Every structure is written in structure tokens, then in C-alpha cells.
Amino acid sequence: MTSARMSALASLRGSIERIEAQSGSPSLARAALGHAELDAALQGGLALGAVHEVFCEGGRQSAAATGFVAGLARRVTPRRPLIWVRQDFSEREVGRLSMSGLAELGLDPRRLVMVRASDVEDALRTTADALACDAVGAVVLEVWGETHKLDLVASRKLTLAAQGAGVTGVLLRIAASPAPSTAETRWIVRAAHSPPASPWQMWGAPLFDAELVRNRHGPLGRWIMEWKCDECLFSEFTAADSQSVAAAPAHRPHQARAQLQDRLAG
Q: pTM for this one?
């Protein structure tokens, strides 16, 4: 039994070394995200057939992180099915994912398969099986809170499955701290303030404060990115306030100062 385990461990290590060697290849397929500076840092875009991690600070940032992950999934799998695996605990904490909301972001609900898992072990098992299916475009694993089940060994197994079938995996970690893993990239996502909307608009475009804290083959960085729902891509955001501001009465400066002093005195 001991020799069999040692042989299996040696085989697993050899497979991991081959995957890590392949991940450094310049021919690795990538999906451009649309943000020029970010795509350059990622050497052309998000690596396909790899595992990526997205973290957020507690439940208060879960909506922003979920929207960011939805954008990543839309970029890497525009036509193939998307499998979204969630813990039951996530649904109890933040509710169900809105299909109409995902549709507004550009995801086709008809290509989305939602899977509810009773615990982390079931979620990991389901994710590994989905990543091993080459008919799938991408798999999202949403896990809430700290867990020792999602360790380096589990991360390597997911990477093996993703690399073998060419399916992209995205781990959405809510209220958890980053730990050693085989992820190609790791992000910390926060909500960014949307600019004032035009009078004929109900709300502004989704804005994300995305910090790239791990990049296996490129630099790190932090960007404020806007998600273009119609074009289904990320773009650069310039914080220019287009609203007009009332000008001071330049033709009567002395009267303006006097009125201001009266108001302050009153």
C-alpha cells in the first residue's frame, strides 16, 4: 500500500511539473478582456485552460466580485456552456443569483448551468468533474468563508483537470484569505463608485476596483475597470465628472463675497 501511494504521488508530481512547464509557454491560448493595459500585463488576456482566483473582502463586496467573475466568464466562454457551482451557504447568505441580472451583464442564461452543493467537498468534486469535460467553456466555483478543504492539493487537482480538457476555472472566494495555490492569476475585487448618470439613465455602468495580486507570467497592478454590458468587455475608466457646476458670479465678485459673509454670520 505504501509503495502504491508513493508511485501515485510521484505520478501526480510529474503531471504537475508538466502543467507548470506548459503554462509558461507563449502559445498558451488567452482571451482578451478589452482593457489594453491589463491585457498587456496578462500577455494578451486571461489564460484559458487554467484556474484563476477572485477574492473579496467579506460579504459586503460579494456582489462586485460576482459581477467581475461573470464578466471574466463571458469573455472566456462566449458560446459554450458555463457551469456555476455554489455552496448552499452562499445562497443562504446572499440569495440566489438573478438570471435577469446576469443577462443584463451579457451572460446568456440558456448557456448557464447552476449547481448547488451541500458542502465544500461536494463542490470541489463537482467542479473537478466539470473541468474535465471538454464540452464546457468555463466553470465557476463559489465558496464562502475559510476552509481547509480547498488547499494546495485540491488546487492542483483542479489545475490538472482544467489543463487536461482546456476548460477555464474561476474560483470565487468570498470572505476568505488567499492561500498558496496553483492559480494562474489571483484578484482582489472591490466595488468602485459609478460616475453620476445622465438624466435619461437609471444607473451607471458597473465599475470594479480590480487588484491583480498574483500573475504567474507578468506584472501585478490595480485598475478601475468599467464593464461594457453591450460589448461584453472591460474598458479603461477615466474619473471625469461630466456634470456642470454652477459658476461664481464673476461680474459682481464683491456682492458675492458680501452675500457669503452674511450667510455665514447668520
A: 0.78
